[in-house]
Design a protein that fits this description.
With about 750 residues, the protein is an alpha+beta fold. It is built from 25 helices and 28 strands. Strands 8-10-7-11-9-12-13 form a seven-stranded mixed beta sheet. It has a seven-stranded mixed beta sheet with strand order 23-25-22-26-24-27-28, with helices on both faces. A hairpin with a 2-residue loop joins strand 2 and strand 3. Helix 7 runs parallel beside helix 8 and helix 10 packs antiparallel against helix 13. The longest helix has 25 residues. The radius of gyration is 26 Å and the shape is globular.
Length: about 750
């Protein structure tokens, strides 16, 4: 991309053609403040210049959808006049520079997105990706040390903010791959509960209504953070540290309680949190959505640093701040609420009929800009890319035909991408609020009671399965992430009802990057239509690259489900004597190993992965029915390490082994049968006397089902044709718990 030649324009990331569009929008050349505002609002981070034309392909409507994309968070009906409010967002670039504050403020920002809507946050989840923590053939000592620093800082930041504010962190995932070295992925999801009548939108309306800026005072932290998040990470990353915000969870707790109290009053017209692009973005989005303008006195903005200019005030991304539109006769009431929480509520302006944002400060007019030009009129770029040559890998066939061994199973169980995550989640308070029924490590999805009802919410956040499948087929990466989330929720007995997505990719300006982004979105759309899941909110994070190249295509999906009767929740562990069944395709083919953990570790990094979306959707729809009819006693989906690791995980969870036999076919895919990671498959356990009922139900649902064996004993025995693996559950546990320390 050609950058504008003026040094001032370069600093704001606008191209020559974009600068000309700014001139056209204003009818004149912008001043320095206005240029900074356009530079932030027209950044990729805020404007979605390369992705917005593609996002319209995602289904976003449904009978439960109350608020879809375009607001601070999505809202879906969950019965009894209640709604789930949720969204996922990224904080990748800030976390690469200052991991603790980058992750902490990412958590703080997504919490504000939810309580801004009038919902009480009840749960946090996170999806994290890092480079390897230990040196190996692809990672040198210094890089591994940096990765470990980023890992520890991010985990600490998530724990520090969530624990202090009192919202439980109930689930997540962590993946390691060299492509994330120096560019970690930090995606945070928040879920809240609101009554239908108390949902608050971010749409300013009514000339004469008052603008109150509430919460923290404004400093210089985070200035032009949006532009920073829209650039490729380079050697100047340390110079970018001032673009990272600093969080205060204790202040946010007060701000949250005050804003939720306001949801019960009729004094507030709209609320908007101050995140990327700070006050500029809040003013632009509120006025553009409402078709109004605003007169603002920047000198009235509380500041914590001397000498701040109008530019600083408008573009600061200081955290824990909200802009509230209040009816003029209720200003004192609203200020009284914030005063009780010892929070400042500064009157900084009014809503006007003329659709202009007019800000004054330092004795003069700082800016005069149409809010719609900032929020809606950024250029849209149609991207076009081409698929790279296919990556066939003849080694997959040989690997698939190898005899599966106990050594391979233990290796996979102890690998960074499969081992016990307790060293991470034990730092999170997952019982805050006393709603958590199933927390981290105890099931495929978190389960939280909805107080005052018999229902529960099931929550999951997942990336592609296999994790590296985007390197081979980004369409399957997008589709499999949706399938993985839906299956995790359905394994609890819940019905998936909606998703939020976070699209983490490299530059869309390369042919490869453009192709990966478009194909992944198409995969998400196809899977959502197959399973009937609307996308109600989301986030796009592009330019996730370093000098070494882009990250793996990483679409992340947050899934919300409802369990109408929480007494029917399905656990992850089988009981002694249970029959063990596989729902879904046995995947007796070398292609099932494509992008798998085993293949990657063996250097077989090609192949053609496969995913039957219709078949996977049938499994998703079947599981809640099996739970409702009490046909299954346990469920666990097959993901990293395939059926072999899934069997081991359930054995570890219960301390009970099993004797199983997997189909061997013609014997050419024995290892694929055990360790293949094709998405859309689930292990379930069934009491022997209910086995006939299960056979009848799965046949009616047109879901392949295979009886694998029986649970019992202190050993996991797996037979595949003539091959036999037998290992003590205690040995499996020791391998799985060979953990890491953040």
């Amino acid at each position: 991309m050609t950058v504008a030649t003026s040094p001032a324009e370069q600093r704001h990331g606008l191209t020559e053609s974009e600068f000309e569009l700014v001139v056209d929008a204003l009818g004149r050349r912008p001043n320095a403040v206005e240029l900074g505002m356009f530079g932030a609002m027209w950044s990729e981070h805020c404007a979605y210049k390369h992705s917005r034309p593609l996002l319209g392909r995602l289904p976003s409507s449904g009978e439960r959808v109350l608020v879809g994309p375009g607001e601070n968070a999505g809202v879906v009906d969950i019965g009894d006049g209640l709604a789930a409010v949720f969204k996922v967002e990224s904080h990748n670039h800030p976390s690469a520079v200052e991991p603790y504050q980058g992750a902490a403020t990412g958590v703080g920002g997504i919490i504000r997105d939810v309580f801004t809507m009038g919902a009480r946050p009840i749960a946090l989840l996170n999806s994290l990706r890092f480079g390897p923590l230990d040196p190996d053939g692809a990672t040198d000592v210094d890089t591994a040390a940096r990765n470990r620093y980023l890992f520890g800082g991010v985990v600490g930041g998530i724990a520090g903010y969530g624990n202090c504010i009192g919202i439980p962190d109930v689930g997540g995932e962590v993946v390691f791959d060299p492509s994330y070295s120096g560019n970690p992925i930090v995606n945070a999801m928040c879920v809240g509960i609101a009554r239908h009548g108390e949902i608050t939108l971010a749409r300013a309306a009514g000339a004469g209504n008052v603008l109150l800026l509430v919460g923290a005072s404004t400093g210089r932290d985070g200035i032009q953070g949006a532009s920073f998040a829209s650039a490729t990470l380079g050697e100047d990353r340390e110079e970018r540290r001032p673009a990272v915000q600093v969080g205060n969870p204790f202040l946010e707790k007060l701000l949250m309680e005050a804003c939720l109290e306001l949801a019960h009053l009729d004094a507030v017209v709209a609320m908007q949190d101050l995140g990327a692009a700070g006050l500029t973005c809040a003013l632009a989005e509120l006025t553009a959505r409402g078709g109004v303008g605003a007169d603002v006195d920047l000198d009235a903005v509380p500041r914590r640093e001397a000498g701040m200019t109008p530019y600083d005030v408008l573009l600061s991304e200081s955290q824990e701040r909200m802009l509230i539109v209040v009816r003029p006769d209720r200003v004192d009431d609203v200020r009284g609420v914030f005063a009780r929480y010892e929070l400042e509520a500064a009157r900084i302006g009014t809503v006007t009929d003329e659709p202009l944002i007019r800000c004054r400060g330092a004795g003069g007019l700082a800016c005069e800009v149409p809010g719609r030009a900032l929020a809606d009129d950024a250029p849209r770029y149609a991207i076009a890319g081409h698929a790279p040559p296919p990556a066939p890998d003849g080694r997959l066939a040989a690997l698939a035909a190898e005899e599966p061994t106990v050594e391979a199973l233990l290796e996979l169980l102890g690998s960074a991408n499969a081992r016990d995550r307790k060293p991470i989640w034990r730092r999170y308070d997952h019982m805050n609020g006393t709603n958590t029924l199933v927390g981290p490590g105890a099931g495929d999805a978190a389960l939280l009671r909805i107080k005052g009802t018999s229902r529960a919410l099931a929550l999951a956040i997942d990336g592609p399965g296999p994790a590296r499948v985007g390197a081979l087929d980004p369409y399957i990466a997008g589709a499999s992430a949706v399938v993985e989330g839906a299956l995790n929720v359905a394994c609890s007995g819940s019905t998936p009802i909606a998703i939020t997505d976070c699209l983490n990719f490299g530059s869309p300006e390369t042919e490869l990057g453009a192709w990966q982004l478009e194909r992944a979105i198409d995969g998400i759309a196809a899977a959502c239509r197959a399973i009937d899941l609307p996308v109600v909110s989301g986030n796009v994070s592009l330019y996730n690259e370093t000098e070494e190249g882009p990250i793996l295509p990483t679409p992340v999906i947050g899934t919300v489900g409802v369990l109408d009767d929480r007494s029917l929740a399905v656990p992850m562990g089988w009981s002694d004597g249970d029959e063990i069944w596989l729902l879904g395709d046995p995947a007796l083919a070398a292609s099932a190993l494509a992008a798998s953990e085993l293949a990657w570790r063996r250097g077989a990094r090609g192949g053609t992965p496969e995913l039957d979306l219709d078949a996977a959707a049938r499994v998703v729809r079947l599981l809640p029915r099996l739970a409702h009819e009490r046909l299954i006693r346990a469920a666990h989906d097959c993901s990293v390490g395939g059926i072999g690791v899934a069997l081991a995980r359930v054995a570890i969870a219960t301390g009970i082994g099993a004797r199983v036999e997997l189909a061997a076919g013609d014997g050419s895919a024995a290892s694929a049968a055990v360790f293949g990671e094709r998405a859309g498959r689930v292990l379930v356990s069934v009491a022997t006397d209910r086995s006939p009922d299960l056979r009848q139900t799965v046949a009616a649902a047109e879901v392949p089902a295979t009886l694998l064996g029986v649970a019992g004993g202190a050993e996991l025995e797996v037979r595949v044709g003539p091959a036999r693996m037998a290992v003590a559950v205690q040995s499996l546990t020791q391998a799985w718990r060979s953990g890491f320390q953040p």
